[in-house]
Every structure is written in C-alpha cells, then in structure tokens.
Fold:
Amino acid sequence: MKIAVLGAGGVGGYFGGRLAAAGHEVTFVARGEHLAAMRRDGLVVESVAGDFTVDQVKATADTEEVGEVDYVLLGVKTWQLEPAIASLKPLIGPDTAVVTTQNGVEAPHQVAAAIGSTAVLPGAVEVIAFLDGPGRVRQIGGGGKLTFAEWDNRSTARVERLRDALQGSGLIASVATDIWAALWSKFLALGSVGAIATLANAPYGVLRTRPGTRQLILDSMAEIQQVAKASGIKLPTDAVDTTVAFLDSLPEAGTTSLQRDINAGRPSELEAWTGAVVRIGRQTGTPTPLNTVLYELASTRSQIG
Ligand SMILES: NC(=O)C1=CN([C@@H]2O[C@H](COP(=O)(O)OP(=O)(O)OC[C@H]3O[C@@H](n4cnc5c(N)ncnc54)[C@H](OP(=O)(O)O)[C@@H]3O)[C@@H](O)[C@H]2O)C=CC1
Ligand SMILES: CC(C)(CO)C(=O)C(=O)O
Structure:
C-alpha cells in the first residue's frame, strides 16, 4: 500500500509514522528543518501508546517526486489547504483516495473542487498530537482514531483496506455510516467552544462550570444545529448531549487549539470554525446572531494579536 502524507505535523506525523512503522510504504511531504531532520535522523514519535522511531524515512518537499499513491493523508491546517491542494495532482491516479483530517466541515469540499468528490474520503481525527521540534512528533492523548468514509458513505474495497491498514498499525479506525453527520457532530464542539474559549481566554474547567459561559456554549451549539439541518445534515438526535458530555470530559486545564494559536499570534483555524458557522448560515438562510458576534470579536482579537 503506497501512502503519501501531505503535511507531516501532529496528525500527519503521528498517523503516518504508525503506518510507516507497521511496514507500509509511506512518503512524507514536508519542508524546511522538519524535512531535513526526518531525512537525517528519521521520524521520532513519542506517544502515550508507545514510543518509536521510523528510520530511513521517505520524505520529500515535492509531490512530483512521489508519483501516484493509493492514499493521501492530508494533514495540513485549514488555512494551509490551498497550496497543498494545488500540489496534489502528481499523487492522484484513477483510484487514489485523498483522506481529509481537518477540523471543520469544509475541507472535503475544498479538495473535491480541485480533484472531484470520488477521489475524496472525508475524515475526522481524534488525537492530541503536535510537532515537538523538527523530526519529532508527540502524542499526549486523544486515542489516535480516524473516522472516515466514501463521499456517499458507500462501502468500497479501498475504505476497507485503509481501515485494516490503520488497525494493523496500532491506530483506531472507524468507517462512518454517515461521514457528514460525524463531521458535523465534531463541528458542534469546535464551532461552539473555540471562539468562546478564545474570547474568555479560559480553560474548559472554567467555561463549563460558569453558568453564563456554559449557556453561551449551548446557545452557539443550537445555532450550529440549525445550520446543519439547513445544510441537509442528519445529526443524531443525541448529538448535543454527546457533545456536552465530551466537553465535560476534557481536562479542567485543557484549552482549544484555536485559543492557543490565537494567543500565540499564530495563524488560526477561526475561518474554518466559527467563520464557517456564520458563512454556511448565511448561505443557507439560517440566522447565527451569537456566532456572528463571536466571529467578529474573535477575528478582531486575532488581528491585533
Ligand atoms: N493536532 C491534533 O491533535 C489534531 C488536529 N486536528 C486537525 O488536523 C489538521 C492538522 O493539524 P495539525 O497536525 O495539528 O497541524 P500541524 O501544524 O502540526 O501540521 C501541519 C504540517 O503541515 C505542514 N505543511 C503545511 N502546508 C504544507 C505544504 N504545502 N507542503 C508540505 N507541508 C506542509 C506544516 O509545515 P509548516 O510548519 O512548515 O507550515 C506542518 O508541519 C488541522 O485541521 C487540525 O485542526 C484534528 C484533531 C486533532
Ligand atoms: C474538540 C477540541 C475543541 C478539543 O480541544 C479540539 O479538537 C481542538 O481544540 O482542536
């Protein structure tokens, strides 16, 4: 099985690293010092599920050098998608599947606009992993699960092969019966808590126990539910309860990646989180007054650093 990991950061490095360690032919498309370090020293993975090093890493900055593969694991951040998508073409053969891992609900559509929806397996990742220096990935929790499916949720050989490869590599793989409901269910959590956590600059333990901020999270989720409905998404009836239980289960001192990025003055995924709630709300004629305020204030905050 030939796999290209385009964007070898927390997600790409961890999932790609485990697939490579299990013997699959994985090529990492990376750049800068990270690429140099992987070529020189291999990919070092520190993980709560067991540390390992992938020696003799196949890594390049150029997708032309990789050629056609069976699967592309797209591991870039949402704001890095455009150039990454533009570099996909040399990797794509007649049955190549590009697996998206980005938070939010728009990445599969952005990729499909360039290469067609039949080449895309929309995916959602559960892990807490990050680059801990060039050539080094750290996974500190979150399991290591990829939920994915064909665009139309049909069962195919390539979906089963990928599931088996992930499971055989010490990862958790779940083929969704409705991948869009799965992506939007996760979006209920991101879209609601991300901007609120950023503006309050508070961890989960505070946000969920303070009645006012807890209610804001619930009100934001209610808007996202309406946007999902207007987009034709059939969320499970217990989607909000499940999401609230998930947020309640996160560590008290935990923070969202959105607030960490904005606090550090880095580019953030705000456009793909609350920005997308507002944008898709507008496209579907669904009012999102709370998320509109959250988006404007969080955008202003990220602009001033
Ligand atoms: N990390 C996590 O625990 C989780 C992340 N996600 C989602 O997964 C996605 C990826 O996140 P994450 O892994 O944290 O991101 P990272 O920033 O850790 O990794 C992205 C990597 O892609 C590289 N990259 C970007 N564009 C290109 C390109 N054109 N060619 C080659 N390399 C490129 C970046 O390099 P450079 O640094 O040079 O830009 C970086 O190494 C996000 O949408 C995130 O929301 C979802 C669940 C959990
Ligand atoms: C679900 C959530 C919000 C948990 O922190 C997340 O995935 C993130 O912060 O990126």
Summary: The chain has two domains: 2-177, 181-304.
